[in-house]
């Protein structure tokens, strides 16, 4: 159990009409809603009804292998979350944005806007964009090397943090008598002059309610964990067994401490795809009804990308062919490892593997009653594998409705989850303190996260 | 009068609590609302009550000279318009974004998102970012040369247009039986390989209701007008006299025809800052009450930037010093020329000039009764200087309320303005046809705007 918090945290990871890759073909969904902003506003309100900490949207900068059979990530996440922000009051709003393309000034501005619009509920899932298809949309040939991506990410985040500090909390004075809108002594250039970015600042927007967005990260490779340990306040991760979850948790928290932070300053949130029904049999049947709708052609393409080997002509009823070594994977190293661990002993056919991965692209799926889902979460929380969970409903909105209406009340009864919001900001929901400002005189917290960049 | 349309068009240019630089100090405004998204949602609803074609937000990528005394552009415009989109149903939503920084893939995605969210109401004000302070936030030293900015803009827009075509209208099939989400034969790579951008595509979002956002432009230099003639569907412009307005209008329309387009394919919208009251005397007194609140220090800094000469130590009661020649101006050439024309004969002191510019940074201000404002607009429209107007309320929301409730009904009575929306899209409001798609087989309009880039 994480130190200093009695409750755990819940994020709803929202994607189209559900995480299951065949969700949009299932009678429990209405596929055309993937294009309807009202659908997403409704999801935000359902999450808020469940007092969830946050909702989250993933993003990639290319259509990837999803074109023919998948319906994900149609909206740019910050734009979408802005529309959700004004339809909700409490729930946190986490958007994915890449450090490998784009620039820190525009990114900092966009998230500050979302934080202003939402009154302090913005979060940034920092990703380094592993895809060659993404690179090709930004003038880059092939997959940029893993290490270079993380180096760029580090400088990118340093600049963004400096920009978010560039206006002190009380810089805006709005004094009509003197005609002073902002106090120039409290607005600072950052004069960043690094290998990849030269940014003068200040940001063109005053400091927002949270000071800056919550920093979220989801890389699980060694450099990913290193980056998370240094910067992240919440980490999404795919862990399939309690033992793996515990190991990842210990590892990451040790890293956090190594960087002079408190273990509790970072919340570990493993993902779970819950199929919920009144009996375990019904829940399993529900899961099967989704698995039966999978398009093998699509799944094979996705699996090929994940594993760095062409499976599109491979037999569905044979085991996986030999896989390339980890050091040849420039994409998502940790997801590669996860699949390799699952399938390497040859006991699974490709078809079985596809079924196993269909719910959440490698994330743990769990079919059971509301009590059983609550038990699972409680065990992971109490046995040191999680500070909370990334809930990935297989179908939407129904799968989120069921979690909120059937599982959350059990968690609340057990004292594991809040019954009311006690904070107005996303940082507050996650039990994190206020952020300092490197420029604020006498601010003990100043520079506590990231250093001044110049 | 523009060919083929009986009505003129009205855009509300929204900025903080008003365009007048002292608006936030005036008793008619509440300054803290510059940070309140609800204020901007209310402005969207007021514009919609007046059946206006659109609302528009400017943007610059630096705080510029506005820090101490001005309250503009706190929100990133697309994020803000997304929040306004879901609070309105009809009014168009035009956001400024730069072609000099950022990249076409992310920009195309962001505007497609806004178009999806708003059901086809997005517009893009294409700007080339003239400021040295903006350059310094993106690793560029000094002001990038005027010509290079427009060259980059041309390629940037070409790529964005190709990306917006990359999904055909009917590419999304959502066929649950076959499991086909989108038809791969109707989703195209663009394979752009140009001097500044290499972009493979397709875009990671299906085609939106309008196909692409309305293209708006506001550069008035020769290259600006050339660019507008080729690409723009609406042009914002600062014109102080009817004769100047007529000349600009003729000039631009001739350019449009030169590019093989119809004159009516581009709408010219000069700006006007209306002070409205029951009598002319009251309107003039209202304007004076704003002028009296101007901070000369702030205005001098702004004027210095505009004219490329340091006026911060110059006497307020002397005329302007000699100005540098036009070819030395790398920033906003047309605004420089406008001020030079106004003040060059030495008849205005700097203080008088500042008062004249305070309402709309060079845009025409007009103080009068609702009838007089309506007369002015009618004259400009009927005498060939405008297809509509960019209404720049000096204070908000009051100045927009007054325009909508007092001037619009007169225009409607005279048959000059719509009484109901007759279209659901921004393009429709501006009387523009549907856009083609270069990739659609047998689409006569295909490639009509911009060419395929590779
Ligand atoms: C729950 C979760 C969500 C993720 N969302 C995104 C995303 O939206 N965009 C993206 O490019 N990567 C996403 N990732 C991938 C990670 O950011 C990271 O790139 C990946 O885990 C590979 O990192 P690694 O190379 O450090 O292992 C996500 C990962 C997880 C576990
Ligand atoms: C009504 C209006 C609005 C404008 N809005 C912006 C803006 O938001 N951002 C910007 O950088 N420039 C803006 N401009 C400036 C123009 O885009 C252009 O850069 C300027 O007129 C100089 O262009 P030129 O060099 O072709 O004269 C605006 C101009 C006008 C007339």
UniProtKB/TrEMBL annotation, chains A, B:
**InterPro entries membership:** Diverse_substr_monoxygenases, Luciferase-like_dom, Luciferase-like_sf, NTA_MOA
Per the record's keyword annotation, is Protein biosynthesis included, yes or no?
A: no
Ranges for domain Luciferase-like come to 31-385
| GO MF entry, a single one | monooxygenase activity
- Which keywords has UniProt assigned to this entry? Flavoprotein, FMN, Monooxygenase, Oxidoreductase
Pfam families membership: Bac_luciferase
Q: Where are the transmembrane segments?
A: none
Output the CDD domains linked to this UniProt entry: Nitrilotriacetate_monoxgenase (cd01095)
Q: What are the binding positions for FMN in this chain? A: 59, 96, 146, 150, 220-221
Q: Which Gene3D superfamilies match?
A: Luciferase-like domain
Quote the PANTHER family the UniProt record gives.
ALKANESULFONATE MONOOXYGENASE-RELATED, C2H2 FINGER DOMAIN TRANSCRIPTION FACTOR (EUROFUNG)-RELATED
Belongs to which family? Belongs to the NtaA/SnaA/DszA monooxygenase family.
Q: What is this protein called?
A: LLM class flavin-dependent oxidoreductase
Q: Provide the taxonomic classification.
A: Bacteria, Bacillati, Actinomycetota, Actinomycetes, Mycobacteriales
